[in-house]
């Protein structure tokens, strides 16, 4: 059935849009089975059912609509918005990832020239920005699973494509997390497999730098992953403790404060080895990291992550001390200064944290004592100010009412010669609130309209 013009909807299609708002998947499935319902129908603003579901954060309905053939790249919206843009505006990472996997164009722009990632960043949805910036289509990796040119064998065995793609698209670039992902997959945790993966990552890096639309961010990420894979391969060949030894090396901290010196030096080395010295991103990273002394803020990992995934530095969130996973909420019960995402990460880090735990505990206790002193002084000053204000008020006397107040004066009655109180005309004093009457409301604007401005 041909797609109608904007706003030309059947009754069942109007009903489908209403059902999407309520989130009723079962009823939506029944409506999509009707011959009168077009999955890519357009409302009066040019929004498809998928756009509505994405903007309202209905992941199950988005999945259902995609199964029925919803077009992720429809650009009939009055302001040029796509389903991916609406997903980014909603802040739903699952929907954003789902639409990306369905083939959404990340470079599409709206009527004011903004991409989906820029739209999400504009409204502060940095998680969605990270997902979009780290997305890598599986088809681009599958290219290397087939023999090319005169090659008899593919550069990447098909069995490694899935595990490698998972690591390429991860939004957590912490070296410990990457090593754990390698360790958890027996197909990757072999010297020969890692060597082939390194080769493919280097080829993708080279292609990103030499293509017409150069992508320095993706090239740097591929190079960084290749360096980690190479380090994993070295430990598998040379160390008896294999990848466990690499994890301990990355997590081991200084006795004084627990700072992971080996990890910091390794990340700096990865950046330094980037083969394209003229890259603007490399020069920015070097300028940001080189003046910083090892152990001081910002760390090489925080600078690198912000450059690759987006402006996560402005996000108010906690990250796991062990693996860097966002949203960690479990603190060490003793020092309460380090945070973990789960008990597994806490156990993995304890071998090194126990050396600095007591020192960090002392630091925290001193900070709490100082904070208590400051709070006590503030309370004293506030109480003193209240007493002084009360004394001033008692000397001046009770204040006149703000409205309807009268002032009594003594006058002499000429007829009797007696002194009698005299009343003057009432004096009205406007309250502070009345000065703003008629100007206290704030006119709300439509979110999408505001984005356009």
UniProtKB/TrEMBL annotation:
Report the superkingdom from the record.
Answer: Eukaryota
Spans of repeat ANK: 45-77, 79-111
| Assigned GO CC terms | cilium
Q: Which InterPro entries match?
A: Ankyrin-MYND_dom_contain_2 (IPR052452), Ankyrin_rpt (IPR002110), Ankyrin_rpt-contain_sf (IPR036770), Znf_MYND (IPR002893)
Tell me which UniProt keywords the record has, alphabetically: ANK repeat, Cell projection, Cilium, Metal-binding, Repeat, Zinc, Zinc-finger
Which species is the source of this protein? Microcaecilia unicolor
Record domain MYND-type: where: 320-357
Under SUPFAM superfamilies, the record lists: Ankyrin repeat, HIT/MYND zinc finger-like
Primary localisation category: other
Q: Where found in the cell? A: Cell projection, Cilium
Give the region (Disordered) as residue ranges: 386-453
List compositional bias (Polar residues) regions by residue number.
396-405, 440-453
Name listed for the protein in its UniProt record = Ankyrin repeat and MYND domain-containing protein 2
Q: Which GO terms describe its molecular function?
A: zinc ion binding
**Role, per record:** May be involved in the trafficking of signaling proteins to the cilia.
